[in-house]
Amino acid sequence: MGEFRILFIVLLSLFMGPSLLWAGGADNKTNWSAEYVGILNRNAATDAADIAMYNPAGVMKMENGFYGNLSVHYLPKDYNNKIDGIDFDQDDPSVVPGLFAVYKQKSWAGFFAVSNVVGGGKVDFKQGNATTNFVKSGVRASVPILNLVNQEYLKAEATGMAYTLGGAYKFNDIWSVALGVRYVKSDREMEGIISLGSSIVPAATYIADVKFEEEADGLGGVIGINFSPSDRLNFGLHYDTKVTLDYKADVERDTTGILPGLGVVDGAERNRNLPAVLAAGASYKVTPKIRIETNATLYLNNDANFKDIAGTSRDESAVGIGYDIGIGVDYTLTDSLNATLGYLYTKTGVDAKDMTPELPELNANTLGAGLKYKATDQLNLMFSLGHVFYQDASFVNRFSQSITYEKKITFFGVGVEYNFF
């Protein structure tokens, strides 16, 4: 069983890796608002309170007043691990909220946001997946008589809520800056069982049953700059610092007895930081009715000092710098109705063989569309939807099995913003 103990590391590390939503880098998530879902490019936007996260210095371009913005995302998630042509999938959906507030006066503003920056969903592979299959293959290589699968499943859930508080100052109509502090509270849960039997020796069985939770919190900073050389052209830039996260473990079950050897000790901590982000955008009003925005976002994964579950630093070739690039258009249909359309390309910076089977970090092309309705002078409603076209990734594992990762996500967003003039 010695080989099994080594292979089971893969099972235990499923949840220690990336997060569970669709937009962003290997760990960072950026799909925070219904406005974002509708255009996919918000780094230079100046039209709603969600820019407290996307373009914090840009809040100085908003009208004076207090803005409250609430968004909810619904994401059906179809994830599939194809192993030698056999499908292992899960389809549990996720619901993710976002809350934003801005209080703006003539030359200064304050902002606050609650949003999910890592995790935010769950997966439930009821029949197992590439991880459990890899472990199962390792057990059978060590003990060939274990040829029956009695039970095999894998579940995980993660949230990483960020609470951002900051202020912005306008030097003049061209330049404004923003500074903020961000507190991140992350919770993770993982449960997995592999139960094997034998048709040759009925008494021969093996059960691997693991369940544990982890919690971490940390502080980071936000810096923003907005440059508006004319009424038609605007540039936004923000930098979110790395957030140090030391996860404290609460072990409920461990029939294998190997968690302490892997650094998961009840009451002890392990480190997995949230990478820094550098994001820029440009917005241009082609006509009074048409605004085009383009974005580029870098996820500085190499600076995060990623570590695996045993505390060993990951090879830099496994997780490189990721990025998003995109373009969107906002078209004014009537005085009270705007339509948006956006495109985004995402490169996560992770090779196929290094991806987490529960959430393979696939490169993707994303399309989003939305409608923004001005119900009154103070009330705006946002409805948006989109689809992620993931690029399948394949490799051959150490047991000569062909592994293909596939994902499908169609997402929906609903938002409401009220301005208390």
What labels would you give this structure?
421 residues, mainly beta, Porin, 14-stranded antiparallel β-barrel, 54% strand, disordered N terminus
Layout of helices and strands, plus pairs?
Blueprint: H1 2-12, H2 34-39, H3 51-54, E1 65-75, E2 77-83, E3 86-90, E4 94-104, E5 108-116, E6 121-125, H4 130-142, E7 148-170, E8 175-197, E9 206-227, E10 233-240, E11 246-254, E12 269-271, E13 276-287, E14 290-300, E15 322-334, E16 337-347, E17 364-374, E18 379-390, E19 393-396, E20 402-420
Brief sketch in words of this structure:
The protein has 421 residues and is mainly β. The protein is 8% helix and 54% strand.
Task: Characterise this structure.
The chain is mainly β and about 425 residues long. The chain is built from four helices and 20 strands. The chain has helices spanning about 1-10, 35-40, 50-55, 130-140, and strands at about 65-75, 75-85, 85-90, 95-105, 110-115, 120-125, 150-170, 175-195, 205-225, 235-240, 245-255, 270, 275-285, 290-300, 320-335, 335-345, 365-375, 380-390, 395, 400-420. The chain has a 14-stranded antiparallel barrel with strand order 1-4-5-7-8-9-10-13-14-15-16-17-18-20. It is elongated. The termini are far apart.
* Count of alpha/pi helices: 4
The fraction of residues assigned to DSSP E strands is: over 45%
* Terminus-to-terminus distance: 68 Å
CATH superfamily: Outer membrane protein transport protein (OMPP1/FadL/TodX)
Overall body shape: elongated
Instruction: Specify the biggest β-sheet.
Output: 14 strands, antiparallel, barrel
CATH topology: Porin
Reading the helices and strands in chain order gives: HHHEEEEEEHEEEEEEEEEEEEEE
Overall pLDDT score: 85
Output the strand order for the largest sheet: 1-4-5-7-8-9-10-13-14-15-16-17-18-20
Number of domains: 1
Q: What would you say the CATH architecture is?
A: Beta Barrel
